[in-house]
Amino acid sequence: MPDFAYDNDTSLFLWRSLPYEVGWEGTYITIITNRRSRQRVHLAAVRREIVSIAAGQFSAWRLEIRTSNARQIAWYADTPRHELLRYDNDRGLIFELDTAPNTARR
User: Is 77 in contact with 60 (CB distance < 8 Å)?
Assistant: First the structure.
């Protein structure tokens, strides 16, 4: 296992822990266990922006994710917990919160 390698299935959680600031960039290796392969992932905290989702409008960090075969975008709340608000995987899958973070759904 190379240094700075993480299971691909943990990526969305891993990205919450990044040091969000304009211009931050990082790279790591993701291990795709069901394909028995690895891939280099490049991350860039591009900017803060307002994201509108079903749960409302939030100030968020726009995180751009690049691999050899994908360009993804994730928006994480501009809060200490960096909740994932919206995610576009570049393959037709977009998901977003429909309830505000830290609130119980009734």
Answer: yes
Contact 49, 74 (CB under 8 A): no
Beta strands in 1-106 (DSSP E): 5-7, 25-32, 37-53, 56-67, 70-77, 84-88, 94-96
pTM of the model: 0.85
pLDDT per residue of the chain (106 residues) written in tens, 0 to 9: 567 788 888 898 999 999 999 999 999 999 887 778 889 999 999 999 999 998 999 999 999 999 998 999 999 999 999 999 999 988 877 888 887 776 444 3
Rounded CA separation 73/16 (Å): 13
6 by DSSP, 3-state: which? strand
**Residues 106, 104: Cα–Cα separation, whole Å:** 6
